[in-house]
Amino acid sequence: MATRSTLVIKVTAGADAPERCSQAFTVASVAAASGTRVSLWLTGESAWFALPGRAAEFELPHAAPLPDLMEAVLASGGGITLCTQCAARRGIEEKDVAEGVRIAGAQVFVSEIMPEGVQALVY
Predict the structure, then answer these.
(1) Residue 3 three-state SS
(2) Does a structural domain hold residue 81?
(3) Over 11-22, what HEC string results?
(4) Considering the entire predicted model, what is its pTM?
(5) How confident is residue 5, by pLDDT bands cut at 50, 70 and 90?
(6) Cα(50)–Cα(87) distance, integer angstroms
(7) Which of 10, 25, 44, 110 has the fewest CB atoms within 10 Å, i.e. is most exposed?
(8) Considering its fold, how many domains does the chain have in total?
């Protein structure tokens, strides 16, 4: 039985660079909808979207709402991870994050991108 490929997307942009941010979430949700396993990493300014309700505050004309895109990733069996260091710098703890979001660090990121057949994108 063949294993499904995984697309790992690390988004570093948030409201500070809305088009880059939206592009990352859009690519993640489209890949998930197409049957690709997706691992979406929230780092830098996108870390704030790990908090309940924060993704709903993001607005960009002609772009799908971030909560819908995040739900598409989770509904497909994909994962959303908040960077450990990014969370710590912002005072975000495990108890603070939205349902379905985990906090993990570089070791987990490396383990996800290293298997053969994995592709990673950074926005």
Answers:
(1) coil
(2) yes
(3) ECCCCCCHHHHH
(4) 0.90
(5) confident
(6) 9
(7) 110
(8) 1
